[in-house]
Amino acid sequence: MISVLILTKNEELNLPSCLEALQWCDDIVVLDSHSTDRTVEIAKQAGARVFQREFDNERDQRTASLTLDFKYPWIYNPDADEIPSIELIRDMQNVAASDAAQPCAFRVRFKTIFMGQWIRRSSLYPTWAVRFFRKDAVSFERSINLRYVVHGEEGTFQSHFEHHTFRKGIAHWFAKHNRYSDFEAQEGLKANRRQPRFRDILSSKPLIRRSALKEFAFRLPFRPLLRFVYMYFLRLGILDGRAGFHYCVLLSIYEYMISIKMSELRQRKQEVKSESQL
User: Which of 1, 56, 253, 271 is a good FRET partner for 170, with 20 to 30 A between their CA atoms?
Assistant: First the structure.
């Protein structure tokens, strides 16, 4: 009743746990970005159909993934470091089996797991991600920090999946967020040139509200420090214990990476402008 689609790139550490939680599915499709570890071998051993495509950016890779053949009209689309709960599996199966009118896509809350525990307060919980949809119901925006665009009515599940984003280690987290910060720095400069959308900060829609807050935050001084204070004290990350402290520090470092790269881009543009005037 449900096909599973997983995009992979060197996921031999994450994929076994993900696939183990998907044994109920008889149509698992993996689009691999030419992994150099055992990812493809692990996927095939689990009975998945594996396709490969050279990775260019996340938006185009996910767009290409929806052109693959699937056995069923409903698609569950986890990342390799995500584990669906039994409750989420049951919710998806109930929707797929129903003949009643349904939304064409569903958002799901997730629990970020760090240092062996759920980081409930420091992780901006609840954050909702599109993970279950009909093949023709979604498209994608942004090459980094992807956004799902739903073409039709959205629904939500109250069940969860676990996000084990640190299973590959802190070094991998830094490498990934170093790449992300390049794009975010460029987006930050663009946001600063736009008229602030203060009205959207009060929107009842979480995605609109979060986007407006993010654009507003790009204009604030001392953003890394403010991010730590907000997450650790105002969002009560202090109650997440030692793991919460380290997680909030990592988030503030990410903000610093974005901030310093924005300054670097401004300086480069100013240097180019000065040279052109000579």
Answer: 56
* Residue 10 token pair: 């060197």
pLDDT digits (tens, 9 = 90+) for 28-56: 999 999 999 999 999 999 999 999 999 99
Q: Which CATH number fits domain 2-163: 3.90.850.10, 2.60.120.10, 3.90.550.10, 1.10.260.40?
A: 3.90.550.10
Buried b (16+ CB within 10 A) or exposed e, 164-203: bbbebeeeebeeebeeebebbbebbeebeeeeeeeebeee
Q: Read off the amino acid at residue 217.
A: A
Q: What is the DSSP letter of 14?
A: T
Residues near 64 by Cβ (< 8 Å), separated by ≥ 6?
31, 53
Express each pLDDT in 120-131 by its tens digit.
Answer: 999 989 999 999
What does the domain layout of the chain look like in residue ranges? 2-163, 170-276
